[in-house]
Amino acid sequence: MSRILSISPLARAAAIALILGSGVALHVPPAQAQPAAGAPVIKAGSVSIQGPWARATAPGAAVGGGFMVLENAGADDRLVGASSPVSASVELHTMSMENNVMRMREVPAIDLPAGKRVELRPGGLHIMFIGLTAPLKVGEPFPVKLRFEKAGEVDVMMSVEAMGAMGGPAGGGMHQHGMPHGAQGMPGGQR
Protein backbone atom coordinates (compact mmCIF):
# COMPACT_ATOMS: atom_id res chain seq x y z
CA MET A 1 0.00 0.00 0.00
CA SER A 2 1.41 3.40 -0.92
CA ARG A 3 1.43 6.34 1.44
CA ILE A 4 1.87 10.05 1.00
CA LEU A 5 5.27 11.20 2.24
CA SER A 6 4.68 13.15 5.45
CA ILE A 7 7.16 16.00 5.78
CA SER A 8 6.98 19.66 6.73
CA PRO A 9 5.85 22.13 4.04
CA LEU A 10 9.38 23.59 3.80
CA ALA A 11 10.98 20.14 3.52
CA ARG A 12 8.31 19.12 0.97
CA ALA A 13 9.07 22.19 -1.16
CA ALA A 14 12.80 21.44 -0.95
CA ALA A 15 12.22 17.80 -1.93
CA ILE A 16 10.07 18.76 -4.92
CA ALA A 17 12.65 21.33 -6.01
CA LEU A 18 15.36 18.68 -5.64
CA ILE A 19 13.49 16.11 -7.71
CA LEU A 20 12.24 18.56 -10.35
CA GLY A 21 15.32 20.77 -10.58
CA SER A 22 15.84 24.37 -9.70
CA GLY A 23 14.50 27.54 -11.20
CA VAL A 24 12.62 26.30 -14.26
CA ALA A 25 9.48 24.41 -15.15
CA LEU A 26 10.11 21.53 -17.48
CA HIS A 27 8.42 20.02 -20.49
CA VAL A 28 9.11 16.28 -20.35
CA PRO A 29 8.82 14.46 -23.64
CA PRO A 30 8.38 10.68 -23.32
CA ALA A 31 11.39 8.34 -23.31
CA GLN A 32 13.99 10.98 -22.49
CA ALA A 33 16.76 9.06 -20.75
CA GLN A 34 19.07 7.28 -23.13
CA PRO A 35 22.13 5.53 -21.77
CA ALA A 36 25.31 7.28 -22.83
CA ALA A 37 27.46 5.43 -25.35
CA GLY A 38 29.90 3.27 -23.44
CA ALA A 39 28.05 3.68 -20.12
CA PRO A 40 28.45 0.53 -18.03
CA VAL A 41 25.43 -1.74 -17.82
CA ILE A 42 24.92 -3.63 -14.56
CA LYS A 43 22.99 -6.91 -14.73
CA ALA A 44 20.76 -8.54 -12.13
CA GLY A 45 19.29 -11.66 -13.70
CA SER A 46 17.41 -10.48 -16.79
CA VAL A 47 17.30 -6.84 -15.59
CA SER A 48 19.83 -4.32 -16.94
CA ILE A 49 20.56 -1.22 -14.86
CA GLN A 50 21.87 1.69 -16.89
CA GLY A 51 23.25 5.07 -15.87
CA PRO A 52 22.40 5.20 -12.14
CA TRP A 53 22.74 8.79 -10.90
CA ALA A 54 21.61 11.21 -8.21
CA ARG A 55 21.46 14.96 -7.91
CA ALA A 56 23.84 16.83 -5.65
CA THR A 57 22.17 18.21 -2.53
CA ALA A 58 22.65 21.41 -0.55
CA PRO A 59 24.33 21.24 2.85
CA GLY A 60 21.76 20.24 5.46
CA ALA A 61 19.34 18.69 2.93
CA ALA A 62 17.50 15.73 4.42
CA VAL A 63 16.52 14.04 1.15
CA GLY A 64 17.99 13.19 -2.24
CA GLY A 65 16.68 11.63 -5.44
CA GLY A 66 18.11 8.76 -7.49
CA PHE A 67 17.44 7.88 -11.12
CA MET A 68 18.34 5.22 -13.71
CA VAL A 69 17.03 3.20 -16.61
CA LEU A 70 15.89 -0.39 -15.95
CA GLU A 71 15.39 -2.77 -18.85
CA ASN A 72 13.87 -6.22 -18.38
CA ALA A 73 14.78 -8.85 -20.99
CA GLY A 74 13.07 -11.70 -19.08
CA ALA A 75 9.78 -12.43 -17.33
CA ASP A 76 7.90 -9.74 -15.39
CA ASP A 77 9.85 -8.54 -12.35
CA ARG A 78 9.67 -5.66 -9.86
CA LEU A 79 12.08 -3.37 -8.08
CA VAL A 80 10.95 -3.92 -4.49
CA GLY A 81 13.47 -1.94 -2.48
CA ALA A 82 16.85 -0.35 -2.07
CA SER A 83 19.33 0.60 0.63
CA SER A 84 22.39 2.82 0.89
CA PRO A 85 24.79 3.95 3.60
CA VAL A 86 24.20 7.61 2.56
CA SER A 87 20.76 7.77 4.19
CA ALA A 88 18.73 6.44 7.11
CA SER A 89 16.22 4.92 4.70
CA VAL A 90 15.56 4.51 0.99
CA GLU A 91 12.09 4.48 -0.56
CA LEU A 92 10.64 4.00 -4.03
CA HIS A 93 8.54 7.02 -5.05
CA THR A 94 6.44 8.47 -7.82
CA MET A 95 5.51 12.06 -8.55
CA SER A 96 2.35 13.04 -10.38
CA MET A 97 -0.02 15.93 -10.90
CA GLU A 98 -3.42 15.57 -9.21
CA ASN A 99 -5.92 18.43 -9.40
CA ASN A 100 -3.11 20.85 -10.31
CA VAL A 101 -1.06 19.81 -7.25
CA MET A 102 2.24 17.93 -7.43
CA ARG A 103 2.05 14.76 -5.30
CA MET A 104 4.96 12.61 -4.23
CA ARG A 105 4.07 9.17 -2.92
CA GLU A 106 5.93 6.12 -1.79
CA VAL A 107 5.15 3.04 -3.88
CA PRO A 108 5.65 -0.54 -2.66
CA ALA A 109 7.39 -1.59 -5.89
CA ILE A 110 8.18 -0.47 -9.42
CA ASP A 111 6.86 -2.88 -12.04
CA LEU A 112 9.32 -4.08 -14.69
CA PRO A 113 7.20 -5.74 -17.39
CA ALA A 114 8.83 -8.38 -19.59
CA GLY A 115 10.66 -6.88 -22.55
CA LYS A 116 10.11 -3.30 -21.38
CA ARG A 117 12.25 -0.35 -20.36
CA VAL A 118 11.32 1.66 -17.26
CA GLU A 119 12.87 5.05 -16.57
CA LEU A 120 13.42 6.41 -13.09
CA ARG A 121 13.68 10.12 -13.82
CA PRO A 122 13.05 13.54 -12.31
CA GLY A 123 9.32 14.22 -12.09
CA GLY A 124 8.32 10.54 -12.30
CA LEU A 125 9.35 7.29 -10.69
CA HIS A 126 12.51 7.64 -8.59
CA ILE A 127 14.44 6.42 -5.58
CA MET A 128 14.28 8.69 -2.53
CA PHE A 129 17.17 8.81 -0.05
CA ILE A 130 15.66 9.97 3.25
CA GLY A 131 17.67 11.18 6.22
CA LEU A 132 20.92 11.88 4.36
CA THR A 133 23.99 11.44 6.54
CA ALA A 134 25.91 14.05 4.49
CA PRO A 135 25.28 16.11 1.35
CA LEU A 136 25.52 14.32 -1.98
CA LYS A 137 28.42 16.01 -3.82
CA VAL A 138 29.14 16.22 -7.55
CA GLY A 139 31.82 13.73 -8.50
CA GLU A 140 31.46 11.66 -5.31
CA PRO A 141 29.65 8.42 -6.26
CA PHE A 142 27.99 6.29 -3.59
CA PRO A 143 26.80 2.68 -3.35
CA VAL A 144 23.18 1.56 -3.52
CA LYS A 145 21.87 -1.98 -3.18
CA LEU A 146 18.81 -2.61 -5.37
CA ARG A 147 16.41 -5.48 -4.55
CA PHE A 148 14.36 -7.10 -7.29
CA GLU A 149 11.54 -9.56 -6.66
CA LYS A 150 12.98 -12.21 -9.03
CA ALA A 151 16.42 -10.98 -10.09
CA GLY A 152 17.63 -10.66 -6.48
CA GLU A 153 20.02 -8.04 -5.13
CA VAL A 154 22.66 -6.07 -6.99
CA ASP A 155 25.07 -3.32 -5.93
CA VAL A 156 25.38 -0.22 -8.13
CA MET A 157 27.37 2.99 -7.82
CA MET A 158 25.32 6.16 -8.24
CA SER A 159 27.21 9.02 -9.85
CA VAL A 160 26.33 12.45 -8.47
CA GLU A 161 25.47 15.19 -10.96
CA ALA A 162 24.73 18.91 -10.51
CA MET A 163 21.65 19.98 -8.53
CA GLY A 164 19.64 20.95 -11.63
CA ALA A 165 20.69 17.94 -13.75
CA MET A 166 17.88 16.29 -15.68
CA GLY A 167 19.53 13.39 -17.45
CA GLY A 168 22.64 12.47 -15.49
CA PRO A 169 25.05 10.11 -17.18
CA ALA A 170 22.03 8.48 -18.86
CA GLY A 171 21.92 11.61 -21.08
CA GLY A 172 18.80 12.84 -22.82
CA GLY A 173 18.46 16.37 -21.48
CA MET A 174 14.94 17.77 -21.13
CA HIS A 175 13.62 20.95 -22.69
CA GLN A 176 13.61 23.78 -20.20
CA HIS A 177 11.27 26.77 -20.23
CA GLY A 178 11.78 29.93 -18.20
CA MET A 179 8.89 29.55 -15.75
CA PRO A 180 9.33 29.16 -12.00
CA HIS A 181 8.42 25.84 -10.42
CA GLY A 182 4.86 25.65 -9.29
CA ALA A 183 3.64 27.61 -12.29
CA GLN A 184 3.11 24.37 -14.17
CA GLY A 185 3.20 20.74 -13.14
CA MET A 186 5.05 17.82 -14.54
CA PRO A 187 3.43 14.54 -15.43
CA GLY A 188 4.26 11.64 -13.14
CA GLY A 189 5.37 8.20 -14.17
CA GLN A 190 3.41 5.78 -12.02
CA ARG A 191 2.47 2.59 -13.80
Model description:
The protein is mainly beta. The protein has one domain (3-24, 41-165): PCu(A)C copper chaperone (Immunoglobulin-like, Sandwich), CATH 2.60.40.1890. It contains 1 helix and 14 strands. The chain has one helix at 9-20; strands spanning 3-4, 25-27, 41-44, 47-55, 63-72, 77-83, 87-98, 101-106, 110-112, 117-120, 126-132, 142-148, 152-161, 175-177. Strands 1, 3, 4, 5, 6, 7, 8, 9, 10, 11, 12 and 13 form a 12-stranded mixed β-sheet that branches. A two-stranded antiparallel ribbon has the order 2-14. A hairpin with a 3-residue loop joins β12 and β13 (152-161). It starts with a strand and ends in a 14-residue tail after the last strand. Residues 1-14, 16-37 and 170-191 have low confidence and may be disordered.
Let me know the CATH homologous superfamily.
PCu(A)C copper chaperone
Structural class: mainly beta
What is the name of the CATH topology?
Answer: Immunoglobulin-like
CATH architecture: Sandwich
Strand content: over 45%
Instruction: List the uncertain runs.
Output: 1-14, 16-37, 170-191
CATH class: Mainly Beta
Whole-Å distance between the termini?
14 Å
Described by the principal axes of the CA atoms, the overall outline is globular
Average per-residue pLDDT, rounded, comes to 75
What's the number of domains? 1
Total beta-strand segments: 14
Describe the main β-sheet briefly.
Answer: 12 strands, mixed
Radius of gyration: 15 Å
- One letter per element, helices H and strands E, the order comes to EHEEEEEEEEEEEEE
Instruction: Provide the helix percentage.
Output: under 10%
